[in-house]
Inverse folding.
């Protein structure tokens, strides 16, 4: 602590340089926290689905519907507890840019299968009791400033026309990675308004025992193998992970660009710190003449570098936390997107280590300095 | 036994394989409380001798005993600790840290002691009074004249109450009036506070203030 004033005075020697160096570290750590959060969110989303539920979609592709008749045949398979069915609606709310996921669901069976959707009991009853009711995620309600009981009109793209819904329920997910920006409504409404022309997009199957998932999945696919609509059945988790792998290249790109920019900025910061140390060679020599030990000088220079990196890093991570929480639009694409405590602590740890790495060369130079040589140059 | 005893001291630098002798067979004895002026032309080895005395440089051969301690036998770590307790160094160009105030510059050697903050403050106030700069404590070096900066430099050199003060041309960068003030201050430290002083100087007038004048020419002590 005795040397704190000396450390602070050195940091204040060239305020502009110190601030700019800290700012470059801030940018590096803002990037680190933001880009790592994309990756951690992708990983979390890949884990969000249940192993006890199967998804059976068309073997041809997710956009191809399956016949209603499959329901009873799936239900009859041993080990299947219940079956639900859903459809992608793909409507537009006012403008194309207001994207959010909309699902027509067989509400009774679906909500029974998804206890992780937390809905107040009165709202659940109100939703189930009204044909045009909608169940909306809390995040989506906040995003558009919707209220319970409000009528919302979506323009159908796959199913043309204006579709009116009354918001009767608001859900919050048990796990943030599940997302709170989806819009659910009754499959029956879709079925009837399309003159019963629509068939399910996929089936969600609740199992008696999760360890039977692979066997039952294979049995179901075998059951429909020679039908007009063969299925591809997988656990909900691997179905979800399949969506996440579509981000695969983006993830690699994010990692590569992030790493390159991060290190480029840090090399600049390290170089600046070395330049600053070089300018103080004479002063270090004077301190040695006064009796300062090599270890003390090493510690002082090292502390300066660590302070710059930690202050810059904490500000950068803090900015990432603040901006990510206010950046709601991304929640539609990456549910649960946030800077995790793990990222914050990892960032601070990296800041300390990088401070030590960037400080080690100037600190060694200071501690190994020949006083006589340096004083000759003063 | 003399306070400072230098015996048969030799020092050389090597450029490629060529040996350049800086000091040769230097013998010098300084009594406690003596004020010695070390004179000689540029390149005569004055500063090198001072650096060896302060333990900043190592002699090639010979011995340096200060207050009974063999300086040449100490490790770098021991020398640093010894310097902080026994040596006060005054530089030609003051060498104050520009980011610290006069008070903070003077306090630097005390950071290496076990003194409390209050004790450090008391010591600094005392030496600021001695050098006549009590009202400039919060000024930065850039806000002080050359003479005032050197007085801060002297205050820094004496704040830890060292046994010996080494001055490397302490008046070399000052005008005549300021140089006179500094020499008077050094003389006062010698006479009132009985500090042993060894001062390197080019200036014969400055050297006259010392009790003893020794000359160094081409690495050899001549008188």
């Amino acid at each position: 602590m005795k040397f704190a004033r000396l450390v602070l005075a050195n940091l204040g020697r060239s305020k502009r340089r110190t601030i700019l160096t800290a700012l470059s570290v801030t940018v590096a750590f803002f990037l680190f926290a933001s880009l790592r959060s994309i990756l951690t969110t992708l990983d979390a989303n890949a884990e969000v689905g249940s192993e006890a539920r199967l998804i059976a979609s068309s073997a041809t592709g997710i956009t191809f519907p399956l016949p209603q008749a499959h329901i009873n045949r799936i239900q009859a398979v041993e080990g299947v507890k219940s079956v639900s069915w859903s459809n992608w609606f793909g409507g537009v709310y006012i403008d194309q840019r207001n994207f959010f996921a909309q699902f027509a669901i067989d509400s009774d069976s679906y909500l029974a299968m998804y206890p992780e959707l937390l809905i107040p009991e009165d709202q659940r009853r109100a939703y189930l009791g009204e044909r045009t009711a909608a169940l909306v995620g809390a995040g989506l309600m906040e995003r558009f400033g919707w209220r319970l009981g409000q009528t919302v009109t979506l323009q159908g793209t796959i199913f043309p026309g204006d579709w009116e819904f009354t918001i009767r329920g608001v859900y919050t997910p048990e796990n943030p990675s599940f997302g709170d920006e989806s819009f659910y409504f009754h499959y029956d409404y879709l079925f009837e308004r399309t003159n019963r022309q629509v068939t399910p997009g996929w089936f969600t199957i609740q199992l008696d025992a999760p360890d039977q998932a692979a066997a039952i999945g294979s049995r179901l696919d075998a059951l429909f193998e020679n039908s007009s609509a063969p299925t591809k059945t997988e656990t909900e988790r691997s179905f979800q992970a399949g969506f996440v792998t579509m981000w695969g290249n983006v993830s690699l790109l994010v990692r590569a660009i992030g790493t390159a920019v991060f290190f480029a900025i840090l090399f600049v910061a390290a170089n600046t710190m070395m330049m600053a140390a070089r300018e103080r060679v004479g002063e270090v020599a004077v301190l040695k003449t006064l009796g300062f030990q090599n270890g003390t000088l090493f510690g002082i220079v090292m502390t300066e570098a660590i302070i710059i990196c930690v202050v810059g890093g904490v500000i950068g991570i803090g900015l990432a936390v603040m901006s990510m929480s206010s950046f709601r639009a991304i929640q539609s694409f990456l549910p649960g997107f946030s800077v995790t405590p793990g990222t914050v602590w990892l960032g601070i740890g990296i800041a300390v280590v990088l401070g030590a790495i960037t400080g080690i060369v100037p600190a060694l130079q200071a501690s190994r300095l020949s006083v006589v040589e340096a004083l000759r140059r003063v | 036994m003399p306070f400072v005893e230098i015996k048969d001291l030799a020092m050389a630098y090597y450029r490629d394989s060529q040996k350049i002798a800086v000091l040769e067979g230097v013998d010098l004895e300084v009594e406690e409380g003596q004020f010695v002026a070390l004179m000689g032309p540029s390149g005569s080895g004055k500063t090198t001798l001072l650096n060896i005395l302060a333990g900043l440089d190592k002699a090639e051969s010979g011995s340096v005993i200060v207050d009974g301690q063999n300086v040449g036998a100490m490790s770098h770590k021991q020398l640093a600790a010894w310097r902080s307790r026994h040596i006060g160094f005054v530089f030609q160009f003051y060498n104050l840290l520009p980011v610290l105030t006069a008070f903070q510059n003077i306090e630097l050697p005390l950071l290496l002691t076990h003194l409390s903050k209050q004790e450090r403050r008391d010591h600094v106030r005392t030496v600021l009074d001695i050098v006549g700069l009590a009202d400039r404590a919060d000024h930065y070096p850039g806000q002080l004249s050359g003479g005032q900066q050197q007085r801060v430099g002297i205050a820094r050199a004496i704040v830890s109450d060292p046994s010996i003060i080494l001055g490397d041309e302490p008046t070399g960068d000052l005008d005549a009036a300021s140089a006179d003030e500094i020499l008077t201050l050094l003389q006062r430290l010698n006479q009132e506070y009985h500090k042993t002083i060894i001062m390197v100087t080019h200036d014969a007038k400055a050297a006259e203030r010392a009790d003893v004048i020794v000359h160094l020419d081409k690495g050899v002590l001549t008188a």
Q: What stands out?
A: Strands of chain A lie at 53-58, 80-88, 101-105, 117-118, 133-137, 151-156, 161-173, 182-186, 202-207, 231-235.
